[in-house]
Specification:
Oligomer: single chain
Helix content: 55-70%
Number of strands: 2
Strand order of the largest sheet: 1-2
Low-confidence stretches: 1024-1032, 1141-1242, 1255-1360
Mean pLDDT: 78
Structural class: mainly alpha
Length: 1360
């Protein structure tokens, strides 16, 4: 109570100054007029003074005199002092100190002179009164109080009803029921009522009841009756009791509370004549009953939902029917009305949102609005609230709408004039309404249109001062969409128009907001049929086609929800994306991918979310979902990636875009223009084009080194292929659909791609290649416009100039991609040229153009002859086919001109491609390593391109490029390449080998072709003169027959590698070599004995893998069948390459190996070089070949000179033929048993000589096998000297080109081993090291005696 404290100085100096200061304070407090607060301050001052007396700080008589003086300040001062005494009475009564209680009693006794006893008897405790002597006994006093209170408050007075006259009530009703249209006011009527009450002695409460009854019957006269009741009533509680009695009357079963009663109760509440808390307790049912009812309804609804998806047996059906009958019987006795809901509806009708909100807060969520009447009443209130704003910002153009008149109630929620006003009441009303906005589709449309109007302002108004407000409003609209619009749409009765209206708003939101709304919608409020459909498709992929077709009946919003559902299904963490065997992707993921491609192509669904999902998965290092992107691009853009293309399709893919579309794909891609545009727009709008490319390029290696750690090798290969194929497909889509400006703006330069983004070089050039083509064409067009000249020569020069301007920065950029020593062998210009060109630049597929044009002609003819087609449709189809035909012909002409320009440019550039300071072996090694192999396995088109590029470089007579050596390196060592390929890469590598073999076969099959395309070409020089760039003389060229021998050797090497891979037992080796063999079947095998060797091994695979690995068995069986069909085209070895008969007399003595050898070639030569033959095959990967001792025959055959390099000169052709004829004779003797004693004797003599000549070498070889590596290196002085030669080469000193010498000696060194060799049990390859001769010898002895490529490497080729 104490709000002010008397200063201690006043107490100490009370008589001097304290008393005066206290009296002055009380006077000031008395003079204040602060609406009753002055009484509290005076009470506090008096309390402090009295408390000082109780404490003993002031004398009793001094304080009593001051209190007596204070009585003059106010009339009610005794009452105020009595209140203070009452507080002190309670406080001192609770104290333990008796002296303080005594001080208090003495103080009150001293004040009895100026405080009336009656007041003290009202305020003080009876015990205190007894101690003061005011009463005799406290106990008797208490009993007397109880009796008085009982008489006053509980005893009913007898009232004589007969004193009330009925005439008074009749006049009262007449007075209240009169016409109120005139000057009759509530004040006039109230005076009349008072007169009636006084005259007829009416009960005032009954009069109030009659007033309410009349008001109920005349509820339209709100203003009059409310004013009357407000003037008449004395206490609100009395009015509440009367209303409660009225409500209680209708709380019986089958009774219905009239709406008029609800109305007057709502009106009285709205005008604050009664309190809601007082009336609420009189209404039924109880809140607890409402909660139980709500729970029961929810449980029944869930049970009904479960029954919809359950199969009900007949016995269960009978039980359910009985239960339903019982429920119907229970419902016959209708419970009383829910008076709380009735009052709530009435409050909403008159616009009293405040009290309505209070009632709804007492009930479960959405319980009230689940009743249609209340939902409609609340909707009507929202209508009125949003009307002005809707007229300004929501009405569509051309729509008039129905104007709504506002409520006359001034206390109703104020209408919203701007979007900020919606936050006041409207959003709150909508949240209470929730999903039951579905009862009013018109209001639903209004809210959606207001949302669209707001989004237009939000997107157009970028002022920073209102940004926070706009963001808050955006959050509000998103909440309304989540809690109201989407749930309401679920409850609407198939209103597709509302769905489209809502999509008009939702499409203005970013997809992130939309998908979050859909997630809430699905997980918390609604389970869409989309999820059921997707779950079925994941199990049954044959449903995809009918489902996709049926989706045409969906709305735009449904399509967007479907996109979200697909993404959620893909991201389901409970689903395994691999099958249980961990080797293949799960079928559910494949089914969803197929569905994605079909749905997104056919229907206008936004792609951003799906593309972002794939991007995020790639960022996380997961590549499974690339299957989705692959299907989407394939279906929407019509770009297929498959390694099963036919040769016709592959040829068509080398042409222009029109030819690709018509003849390059399996499917029909005619109608993909719109879907391609949608995909392109999605990628560009969300800046996903380049990130997807870079992530895919990086993920290829991530699949192997990061993602594939614990996965099965087969699955890793499949994921790698999927990632690579999707990259090729996606890059092709971007190249063909993006404009030049868009592409160049997004793809950085090659050095940035490789060095900053760590993109593999093949992928980087793949992405940059279209950019170079665009830039060259743009620059070419600029130059043509700048200087107008129609001559072809001028155009070509301008094209070359354009290429130089565009490609010069590229030449400079690629230098940083590789170490500096690489550019000692290749020029950056050659490297960039190889990687920047495509098959479109090298050749025109005339036959493919002609084939497609003929198809169109046949189609036109068929249209003309078909009588069932209407004339107008005939005309359209003919026009379409004719236009296509003209486009193809124009495209062919355009490509032809382009190819001519490119070839002219290459002709000018070729002299600067390869440097003369490196050996040809080094040059070819770098070319294979950095150019040919990486690109030939990139795509099928690139495989063809690589083969054709090698042929083109040869045809251009490129200096320092050895065609023979290039082909030799490609065909001679395929084991490692095949083993390192994935399945799809094997297809491409096989296609590359097939194209290379096609060229070789063409040269091999016709002498005229060979002499036209190979003779006098630098690539076929067996000796290269440093002084000239011409084709050399005839003696330096490899003639036709020797080339056939070399081709046979290549076939043999392919057979040897194939047999090795087939016999390893390794899954990857066998699968890949079977794929490669299937691809090269048109060109290999051509020799009968090699084909038989392959057939034998493949048959063995079929037997071994039949029950173990079915996929290998299927591959082997397929190849075996096709191989047998090719047998008719195989020829014996002597027809494949010409075997000359030996001419002994023509053999010089220098070629004989000692006395008594009549015309026999020096077999010791073969034996001596036998150890080096394998090096001749395997040493091609080394930078320089291993220098070996050369026998006397070779010494006589080759003369070594050095001028700017090491040059080997060939011996005369006659000597060469003699060597070959000797070998043929020896081979013939071994194959054919002697028929005469002389022959047999000669054979025995030759055999003895062979054994004597080779004995020493065999001993040395066996010693090598038993000698450790360190000792073996000591035994090889020639190899050590070779290392020295390598060191000299590094210092720029001339070194003997032992690699070329090995190539020269290859036929003789190989022949000895080949005599006893077929494609036998080959062991796994060993590293190509200098100490590997023992293993090679061991393998040589393991070869069986089928057939050998005699003369296979009998060509002396000397390379510098």
């Amino acid at each position: 109570m104490a709000t002010l404290i008397l200063p201690g100085e006043w107490i100490k100096n009370w008589e001097k100054s304290g008393k005066h200061e206290f009296v002055q304070l009380c006077k000031e407090l008395t003079e204040k007029t602060d609406h009753g607060s002055e009484i509290r301050d005076i009470q506090a001052a008096l309390y402090e003074l009295c408390w000082q007396v109780v404490q003993g700080n002031l004398k009793l008589d001094l304080v009593a005199s001051v209190l007596g003086d204070m009585m003059e300040l106010r009339d009610d001062m005794p009452s105020i002092l009595a209140d203070v005494f009452s507080i002190l009475d309670l406080e001192t009564g609770a104290l333990e100190e008796k002296n303080k209680r005594d001080h208090y009693t003495q103080l009150v006794g001293a004040c009895l002179f100026f405080v009336p006893e009656a007041i003290l008897k009202e305020r003080l405790d009876p015990e205190t009164l007894e101690s003061l002597g005011l009463i005799k006994q406290a106990h008797q006093f208490n009993q007397k109080i109880v009796k008085i209170k009982t008489k006053l408050f509980y005893k009913q007075q007898k009232f004589n009803l007969l004193r009330e006259e009925n005439e008074g009530y009749a006049k009262l009703i007449t007075e209240l029921g009169q016409d109120l249209s005139g000057n009759i006011t509530s004040h006039v009527v109230l005076e009349s009522i008072k007169s009636l009450i006084g005259c007829f002695n009416l009960d005032p409460n009954r009069v109030l009841d009659i007033i309410l009854e009349v008001y109920e019957s005349r509820s339209d006269q709100d203003e009059f009756f409310l004013s009357l009741i407000k003037s008449y009533m004395c206490e609100p509680l009395t009015l509440c009791h009367i209303l409660g009695f009225k409500f209680k009357f209708y709380q019986e079963p089958n009774e219905e509370t009239p709406k008029s009663l609800y109305h007057i109760a709502a009106a009285l509440l709205h005008h604050n004549l009664i309190e809601l808390e007082d009336l609420y307790v009189h209404l039924m049912p109880l809140d607890a009953t409402i909660i139980e009812e709500h729970k029961r309804d929810i449980s029944e609804a869930k049970q009904i939902a479960r029954k919809l998806v359950m199969v009900v047996l007949p016995s269960e059906k009978n039980e359910d029917k009985e239960k339903e009958k019982e429920k119907e019987e229970e419902k016959n006795e209708r419970p009383p009305d829910n008076q709380k809901l009735g009052l709530l509806e009435a409050l909403l009708r008159i616009g009293d949102w405040h009290h309505a909100q209070s009632i709804m807060d007492q009930m479960p969520s959405f319980y009230a609005t689940s009743h249609k009447a209340i939902a409609l009443a609340l909707c009507q209130l929202v209508h009125l609230t949003v009307e002005p704003l809707y007229r300004r910002a929501g009405v569509p153009k051309g729509a008039r709408g129905c104007v709504m008149h506002p409520l006359r109630n001034k206390r109703a929620p104020r209408p919203a004039e701007n979007f900020e006003d919606l936050r006041r009441d409207t959003f709150s009303m909508l949240c209470y309404l929730g999903p039951h906005l579905s009862h009013d589709p018109i209001l639903f449309a209004k809210i959606v249109r207001l949302g669209k109007g707001f989004m237009k302002e939000y997107q157009s108004d970028g002022r920073p001062d209102i940004k926070d407000k706009m963001d808050t409003l955006l959050s509000c609209f998103l909440s309304i969409a989540d809690q109201v619009l989407l749930p309401s749409l679920s409850l609407m009765e198939c209103n597709a128009c509302m769905s489209e209206e809502l999509w008009g708003l939702f499409k203005l939101f970013p997809y992130q907001h939309r998908y979050r709304l859909y997630g809430q919608w699905k997980n918390e409020t609604y389970s869409s049929i989309c999820f059921i459909m997707l779950s079925q498709i994941q199990w049954y992929d044959n449903l995809i086609v009918p489902v996709v077709d049926s989706l045409k009946y969906l709305t735009s919003l449904n399509y967007d929800v479907l996109a979200y559902c697909i993404i959620e299904a893909l991201a389901n963490p409970e689903k395994e994306k691999m099958k249980h065997d961990d080797t293949t992707i799960s079928s559910w993921l494949q089914s969803l991918a197929s569905l994605c491609g079909a749905v997104f192509r056919k229907y206008p669904i936004e792609l951003a979310g799906l593309l972002q999902y794939v991007t995020n998965q790639l960022k996380a290092g997961k590549s499974f979902d690339l299957l989705i992107l692959k299907e989407v691009v394939q279906k929407m853009a019509g770009i297929e990636i498959t390694d099963e293309m036919t040769s016709e399709q592959l040829e068509a893919m080398t042409g222009g875009e029109q030819l690709k579309a018509e003849g390059g794909y399996f499917g029909q891609i005619r109608n993909t223009k719109k879907s391609s545009q949608r995909l392109k727009d999605a990628l560009l709008d969300h800046e996903l084009a380049l990130p997807l490319c870079l992530l895919m390029a990086q993920q290829r290696n991530g699949v192997v080194f990061l993602e594939g750690g614990e996965k099965h090798l087969k699955l890793v290969g499949h994921l790698y292929d999927q990632c690579h194929d999707t990259l090729v497909q996606f890059g092709g889509f971007l190249a063909s659909n993006l404009s030049t400006e868009d592409y160049i703006k997004r793809v950085p330069s090659i050095d940035i791609l490789c060095n900053q983004f760590h993109t593999p070089h093949d992928a980087a050039f793949f992405l940059s290649r279209p950019m170079y083509a665009h830039q060259i064409l743009s620059k070419y067009d600029e130059l043509k416009k700048a200087e107008k000249g129609n001559r072809q020569q001028q155009k070509v020069h301008k094209y070359v100039a354009a290429c130089e301007q565009v490609m010069t920065p590229v030449h400079e950029a690629v230098v940083s991609l590789h170490p500096a020593r690489v550019w000692d062998d290749l020029r950056p210009q050659f490297y960039a040229t190889f990687w920047s060109l495509t098959m479109y630049d090298l050749a025109v597929p005339h036959s493919a153009y002609e084939r497609e044009v003929n198809k169109l002609k046949v189609q036109i003819k068929a249209i003309e002859e078909n009588p069932e087609i209407p004339l107008n449709k005939k005309k359209k189809e003919k026009e379409r086919c004719t236009a296509l035909q003209e486009k193809l012909q124009e495209e062919e002409k355009k490509q032809l001109e382009h190819v001519q320009r490119v070839l002219h440019r290459l002709k000018l550039e070729k002299d600067n491609w390869l440097l003369a300071k490196s050996t040809k072996n080094e040059t070819i090694t770098k070319f294979l390593q950095l150019c040919l192999f990486p690109r030939c396995i990139f795509s099928s088109i690139d495989a063809v391109y690589c083969a054709r590029f090698v042929e083109l470089v040869h045809q251009q007579k490129t200096p320092n490029f050895c065609t023979l050596l290039c082909y030799d390196r490609v065909f001679s060592a395929i084991i490692y390449t095949v083993a390192s390929c994935t399945e799809n890469e094997s297809h491409r590598y096989g296609r590359f080998l097939c194209c290379m073999l096609e060229t070789v076969t063409r040269w091999h099959s016709d002498r005229a072709t060979y002499e036209k395309e190979c003779v006098n070409y630098p690539g076929f020089l067996t000796i290269f003169r440093a002084t000239g760039f011409d084709g050399g003389n005839k003696a330096d060229q490899l003639d036709y027959e020797n080339f056939r021998h070399v081709v046979h050797k290549w076939h043999y090497m392919l057979t040897k590698a194939s047999v090795h891979c087939l016999e390893t037992g390794d899954y990857t080796h066998i699968r890949n070599i079977l794929i490669v063999l299937t691809k090269i079947l048109p060109c290999y095998p051509k020799v009968l004995n090699l084909g038989q060797a392959l057939e034998c091994r493949v048959h063995k695979i079929c037997l071994e893998e039949k029950d173990k690995r079915p996929d290998l068995y299927a591959l082997a069986m397929g190849y075996s069948g096709r191989l047998k069909s090719q047998k008719v085209h195989m020829v014996p070895e002597n027809e494949f390459h010409h075997k000359e008969q030996p001419a002994r007399s023509a053999t010089p003595a220098s070629q004989q190996n000692g006395p008594g050898s009549t015309g026999k070639p020096a077999t010791s030569t073969s034996k001596t070089e036998e150890g080096t033959s394998e090096d001749g095959d395997r040493g091609k990967d080394k930078s320089q070949g291993t220098a070996k001792p050369v026998n006397k025959a070779n010494s006589a055959a080759a003369k070594v000179t050095t001028s700017n390099g090491n040059v080997f000169k060939k011996k005369k052709q006659k000597t060469k033929k003699t060597l070959w004829s000797g070998k043929e004779k020896k081979e013939k003797k071994e194959k054919t048993p002697g028929s005469t004693p002389e022959t047999k004797a000669e054979n025995r003599r030759e055999k003895q000589r062979d054994e004597r000549a080779g004995k020493e070498e065999r001993v040395a070889r066996e010693g090598k096998e038993k000698t450790p590596k360190a000792d073996r290196e000591k035994v090889k002085p020639d190899e050590k000297s070779n290392k020295d030669d390598k060191a000299k080469a590094g210092n720029g000193e001339p070194v003997e080109p032992s690699r070329e010498r090995d190539a020269i000696k290859e036929s003789k060194s190989k022949e000895k081993g080949d005599r006893s060799a077929v494609a036998g049990s080959l062991k796994s390859p060993v590293p190509r090291s200098e100490s590997a001769e023992s293993e090679r010898d061991h393998k040589r002895r393991k070869l069986d005696s089928h057939s050998s490529p005699s003369h296979s490497s009998s060509v002396k080729v000397s390379m510098a």
